[in-house]
Automatic annotation (TrEMBL):
This is SAM-dependent methyltransferase. It comes from Streptomyces lusitanus. Gene3D superfamilies: Vaccinia Virus protein VP39. The keyword Repeat does not apply. InterPro entries: SAM-dependent_MTases_sf (IPR029063), SAM_dep_MeTrfase_SAV2177_type (IPR006764). The lineage of its organism: Bacteria, Bacillati, Actinomycetota, Actinomycetes, Kitasatosporales. GO terms for biological process: methylation.
Amino acid sequence: MTDPATAPGSARQKIDTSVPHSARIWNYWLGGKDNYPVDEEAGDAYTAVFPGIVTIARSSRAFLRRNITYLAGEQGIRQFLDVGTGLPTADNTHQVAQRIAPESRIVYVDNDPMVLAHARALLYSTPEGATAYVDANVLDPERILEAASGTLDLSRPTALILSNILGHIADLDEARSVVDRLMAALPSGSFLSVNDGSRGVDPVFEQAQEAYNSSGAVPYNLRTVEEITSFFDGLELVEPGVVSVQQWRPEADAPEPEIIAEHGGLARKP
């Protein structure tokens, strides 16, 4: 989860360590170190109500890894636009893609000052490829596309990654508009990857999320599976469609996948 609520250019603002931040809490649940005591306290308070959030966070990251592996390895995609990237952890988009195809080019987008600082320090590219960071708001697709075009050739197929970011946009129609405007700028053969927390699967998760949203942190809105699926309207879903993230093309040696309250899918633009 990342915070799209601040204005573009916010990376120049001072990092506030007095209140919990969703990107840092997510990093804590993933086992990262880029967080503060206030984030650990908020994360622990959440897990006290719903311990399964750690499974959701790590399953979300694994889903993204499998998506990128499929795109780079089976579909030959060499350009990735990762919007709402959050704090760098293990197996970031560029690491997965460039292990398969070192010439891959990746643009990360976020507008959090802490994310910006860490991204610039940690997101190194292979010599053959490129990795760039754009300071922009998810609610400003035109700014994202303009800035990304400095690194990506948007006339070539590109994978748009929206992992746990659309839930920060409260209005479903506005969230769909963001997706539509971004995908409209990409050519045939491009892909859309979306995963978000889902409603209607786990009432304990929903209770914990409602408590989190009322804590003063930037809210994250769970959506039904049908609402998440609607982001792919007009695109060709890759099998098995929109499913709980552990069920999306699990690795052969993975444990039996569970149905957890995090759904996602991958689709191709015809």
